[in-house]
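Hi support team,

I'm opening this ticket because the web form for multi-chain structure prediction keeps timing out on my end. I have pasted the exact lines I submitted so you can reproduce it. The total is 277 residues across two entries, so I didn't expect it to be a heavy job. Is there a limit I'm missing, or should I split the entries? Thanks in advance, R.K.
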Amino acid sequence: MPVNTSAVGKEYPPVVYAVGREKVKEYASAVGETNPLHLDPVAARAAGYDDVVAPPTFAVVYQSGAVMPGIFDPEVGINFAMMVHSGQDFRWERVVVAGEELTTQARVANVEEKGGMGFYDFEVVTKDAGGAVVCTGIWKMIVRGV
Amino acid sequence: MAANYEPGEALPELKVTPDRFITIRYAGASGDFNPIHIDEDFAKSVGLPGRILHGLWSMAQVARAQTEAAGGPDKLKALSVQFRGMGVLEQEVSVTSTVRSVEGGVATVDAEARQGDTRIVRNAVAEIALD
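Hello R.K., no limit was hit. The queue was backed up. Here is the completed structure from your submission:
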């Protein structure tokens, strides 16, 4: 069964994420960060930041809520039980700091079928309160047996 | 202190052993509660050897190897990874990184994460801002 490419270009509603100090610390601890910039607001302020700095891969946390509607969109047609997260790209324009409010929007960037597998790429762009891009992610999913 | 970013240079290796609760903690921290990561019975019911690591946790180890080598989170400008082999609990993960090129104040670094012979993150490419 060929994949349905009609959803390519489809955009999903923007999702707002408020970056919280304790969430950043929780995430940093879970991934083994020891840099006090991520864990100690005093150290972060001493380094010139307003509050703790999110580790770069915290982008997963503030972007996932925006990409999930695409992954579960019937028009995209991903069979979640057969899906694997095959790859992930992030490009960061700057670090994110606790206290910020970020807005993220996802778009279906590509859908194609190769060798009986479906390839689904979502481009996910996060902007700050001033509208400047802080992070662009490409979330890559593969579905076996399409 | 930043590592020596010269083409062909190996960056410091990162070694970390995920304990048996790490996927529970990462699920809570990230919001990814897929049962293949947190429910041993469910994971086995779908043919896995047991609970497996979140790919994005493994990616975070590759990112951490880069920010620690470069001297801070603001130095990592981009990271691209592929997830392939399954990562398992209680087995050491090692992240190795090699500088591919340096151009215009940016180092391009090739990296991978493995557990024993299994590459759990492969073809990782990082861009590092050099001051």
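A quick check on our side: The interface with chain A takes residues 16, 22, 25-26, 28-32, 55-57, 59-61, 63-64, 67-68, 72-74, 76-83 of chain B (CB under 8 Å). Let us know if the file doesn't open in your viewer.
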